[in-house]
Amino acid sequence: MVGILSSAFVVLSAAVFYRQIVETDYLRGEGERRYLRVGEIAARRGMITDRNGEPLAVSTPVETVWGEPRKLVHKPDAIPPLAIALGLEPKALQERLAATSERGFLYLKRRVSFEEARAVRQVVADHHLDGVDFETEYRRFYPGVEVFGHVLGFTNIDDRGQEGIELTYDSWLKSEPGLRRVIRDGRQQIVQEIEQVRAPRQGADLALSLDRRLQFLAYRELKAAVAEHKAAGGTLVALDVETGEILAMVNQPGYNPNSQRDGSSERRRNRAVTDVMEPGSTVKPFVVAAALERGLVKPTTVIATRGSLAVGRDTVKDVHNYGSLSVTGVITKSSNVGVVKIAQMMSYGDLWGLYDQLGFGHATDVGVPGESRGVLRHHSKWRVFEHATQAFGYGLSVTALQLAQAYGVLAADGVKRPATLLKRDPAAPAGAAEETRVLSADTARKVRAMMETVVSDQGTAKRAAITGYRVAGKTGTAKKSEGRAGYGGGKYQAVFAGFAPAGSPRLVIAVMIDEPKGKAYYGGLVAAPVFQKVMEGALRLFNVPPDDPQASMLLARREVKP
Predict the structure, then answer these.
(1) The predicted structure's pLDDT at residue 227
(2) In the prediction, which pLDDT does 560 show?
(3) What is the pLDDT of residues 67-105, one digit of tens each?
(4) Which CATH code is given to the segment(s) 38-207?
(5) How many CB atoms are located within 10 Å of the residue 534 CB?
(6) Contact (Cβ atoms closer than 8 angstroms) between residue 133 and residue 84
(7) How many other C-beta atoms can be found within 10 angstroms of the C-beta atom of residue 215?
(8) How far apart are the first and last CA of the chain?
(9) Domain locations along the chain
(10) pLDDT for 198-245, tens place per residue?
(11) Which residue has better confidence, 181 or 122?
(12) What angle do CA 133, 136, 141 make, to 5 degrees?
């Protein structure tokens, strides 16, 4: 008995020594594995605001439901009501749990609504369900819905940018969750937080150049015009002349970024920078500007139009025979023959060089994914008739943003400023070092004065006029190419681009209505009214004083008249 007891004592002592000394680290690790966990500390993605600090994209805390499949598979009666509470198919949830029955963690549904979270808690209480818990995550929310959808884009389930600004500035906006070590009980409930392993890093906020008020106004008017003319779509871009900031950028049709499956990728692309168009007659002021720069013409120089002009084997025609027009009249009446004759005074390289300096054929680099450079063939490849078509806006393609930026050169006395979607620092005017002079100030002012005649009773865009302000702009009505079928499909793009006040422009707006249907399809009838409504509202929003005293006095008399 003594021998047996002695042997048992030796074995017991050896076992104690082995577990307390040799196996200490292993046993401690096994114990901690059963109650000690490392969990994430949720972090907020950076907020996107407009130029005035109004939120455009925010991350709000929401709950995510997760479960332990190895426990839930033993509660088959609770699975159907749990699935219904989460808005899932019961059969699909049962199959997921069965396929992961050995696992201790599975996301049942991420970022649930308040109603879903409440319903899940009720199911857990009614069925005494073990193995279901909640954690906090952040969900991206866009208060402006589809008004800002094309510019902002959206994030995926892991809060990573997928389109638009969210994608371009993802590294700036994204957050990094923190880590903490906690003790969980047998039901996986946190009973104590031991330490913070890594502090969470919140995402940085981003201020855009957009003005929320102007964006809503532009969206409303563009949508109304597209509906009125039963058009396929439309685009509007508004720029600040002094800074190059994009104040509004809207497209139709739109989509809701809060519901990522709302619309196909066709609806989600930002047409203002991804889609190109032949600008039509909106490029005619630049042809005149190039000729003025070289001293080839003056605003009063007379051009004999006579309704048509033979160019090689082809013929350029006007809508009417305008007879003899001054260079200003060529712009006023939008004469194709007149502008081609002006272009023929210059070499191919002269016209191409100005287009190239304006930014045609080059991306603006505003930070929108999928931006198109447009099409501007080198002048060495031009044919005789192509030189003519380039003068009235065919044979080259531009985006709506490129067109607005080019008009900004005329508005800024010949200086080209880089366009941006980010708010400039008013204390240090951004882009000053990047500004380039494209035209002389004298030429730009002369062209602006000619363009004012377009927005008059004698011009093609009298519907763009704004009482109290001098407005300058140019219409464009371009036939759409149907590939090999050419331009015979009867589809048009109505365009108007302009600025105000014309004497010292503050804002530039370019409008394009795609495929308007019905009798009205000219830029002066379809696009110009949109410009007028948006520009009038913008001038009031930015407190731009009227520059047409005579019209202002007339308006005041009408208002006080009993």
Answers:
(1) 93
(2) 46
(3) 888 888 888 888 888 888 888 888 888 888 888 878 777
(4) 3.90.1310.10
(5) 24
(6) no
(7) 25
(8) 127
(9) 38-207, 212-256+271-560
(10) 777 888 999 999 999 999 999 999 999 999 999 999 999 999 999 999
(11) 122
(12) 130
Token digits of residue 148: 């800002």
Cα–Cα dist 77/88, whole Å = 15
Domains 38-207 and 212-256+271-560 share a fold: no
Amino acid found at 416: K
Which amino acid belongs to residue 500?
A
Cα torsion at 271, 402, 276, 290 (round to 10°)?
A: 160
Catalytic residue set: 281
Helix-helix angle 400-411:441-452, to 10 degrees? 110
**Displacement of CA 346 from its chain's centroid (Å):** 38
Give the residue from 398, 528, 543, 420 showing the smallest Cα distance to 475. Answer: 528
Question: For the chain, what percent of residues have pLDDT higher than 90?
Answer: 52
**Could you give the C-alpha distances from 37 to 91, 117, 138, 180, in angstroms and in order?**
31, 24, 22, 8
**Block residue for tokens 């000053």:** 432
The DSSP output letter for 356 is H
212-256+271-560: CATH superfamily: DD-peptidase/beta-lactamase superfamily (3.40.710.10)
Answering whether pTM is above 0.85, one says no
Q: Which token pair is 411?
A: 């508005």
The length of the chain, given as a count of residues: 562
Long-range (24+ apart) CB contacts under 8 A made by 293-296 are: 293/354, 293/439, 293/440, 293/443, 294/346, 294/350, 296/342, 296/345, 296/346
Q: How far is CA 379 from the centre of its chain?
A: 32
